Amino acid sequence: MDGGGRVSEPLTTGTPGRADPRPAPRRASRLARWLILPPIVFRRRGSFVSVPMNRRLPRLTGTALVLGFFGAVGVTGAVLGGQYDAMRQAFGEPRDIAARIVGLGIDRITITGLAQLTEREVLDIAGISPKVSLPFVSAAEIRARLEKTPLVAGAVVRKLFPNELAITLVERQPYALWQRDGQLFVIAADGTVIDTMRDARFASLPLVVGDAANVKASAYRALLDAAGPLASEVRAGMLVSGRRWTLKMQNGLDVRLPEEGAAEAVRRLVRLEREGRILEKDVLAVDLRMPDRVVVRLTEEAAAAFAEAAKKKPKRGTKGIET
After folding, report:
1. Which of 212, 283, 268 is nearest to 243 (CA)?
2. Of 141, 151, 249, 265, which sits most exposed with the smallest number of CB within 10 A?
3. Residue 1 forms part of a structural domain
4. Which helix (H) or strand (E) holds 126?
5. Residue 52 confidence class, pLDDT cut points 50, 70, 90
């Protein structure tokens, strides 16, 4: 230092008159200057160090951002142009596509407990298609969809990784047909409506008619069991006032049964048919509601013939008149 307190040598390092041997700091990239981000300041032992943007960003950051920008633009254009929706409809959701690529698709489906339903019907109800993947299907949702089907009483769905789905069903068994207000339904033993009647495979089921007849279908089937050989001659059972049954026979004849002791009345009908062929007579209805007698209603022709025969029959106690 000179006498005035000035330093006679430069404060910079190196030889005077020569360039500083240290390399000049790199200039910030054009992207960093465009972002105009302030430098990060670190505290180090009581001093401050300023780190330029170009030194704290990883290499190729700018390239990655540019590629990401153009990718976002491309995705936005695909969504707005409809190509994204078309891809989803053809191949499924992007997450499902990725899962299938790594081997997590649904390649095997095991369905047990089928009786009336088919495998195709189960898959359609469950919403399972080749476009879904195992990680992203919900077993709870599939079970809920299946159990909403009237024919299904219960379902168990399990996901077996990496690529198998197992479904176990408990089906309601079709028990009878129920006619109400002109519509025909297939019902279970407890009266639950399974479906509308649209399949000929259910045509041989017993038929019950009337309000609340569905919940008493088991009682009607007990009457058919009591009818024995005549069961095939019974076309339907009509519940009257929710209390008693009238059997509709194949030949159009009505058999009226009592509210109590209906099965015994049916067995009486079997005896009458066996002994007197009552179902082959000109009869419109047979009333078995009284245990000690049988009341029949004749057809008009049979009633007229019976009346004419009664007129011609001589009364007791009269004598014939000679002519």
Report:
1. 212
2. 141
3. no
4. helix 119-126
5. low
User: Does the pLDDT at position 242 exceed 80?
Assistant: yes
Strand 193-196 with 234-240, pairing: unpaired
pTM above 0.85, yes or no: no
Q: Confidence band (pLDDT; 50, 70, 90) for 320? A: very low
Strands 283-287 and 295-298: antiparallel
Contact 155, 170 (CB under 8 A): yes
Distance CA 147, CA 96 (A): 25
Token pair 């009337």 is found at 210
Residues 149 and 188 in one domain: no
Residue 127: give the domain boundaries. 103-171
Q: Among the three residues 155, 171, 187, which one is the final residue of a domain in this structure?
A: 171
pLDDT tens profile 74-104? 556 555 555 657 767 777 888 888 898 999 9
- Residue position matching structure tokens 């009284």: 290
Q: Which amino acid is at 51?
A: V
User: What are the strands, taking DSSP E only, across 86-233?
Assistant: 108-112, 152-160, 164-171, 176-180, 183-187, 193-196, 207-209
| Alpha carbon distance 125, 171 (integer Å) | 14
Backbone angles phi, psi at 321, to 5 degrees: -105, 125
List strands edge to edge, sheet with 183-187: 193-196, 183-187, 176-180, 207-209, 234-240, 244-249, 254-256, 283-287, 295-298
CB of 177 closer than 8 Å to CB of 210: no
In a domain, 182, yes or no: yes
And the tokens for 273? Answer: 């048919």
Rounded Cα–Cα distance for residues 209 and 246 (Å) = 10
Residue 319 covered by a domain = no
Burial of 152 (0-12, 13-18, 19+ CB in 10 A): buried
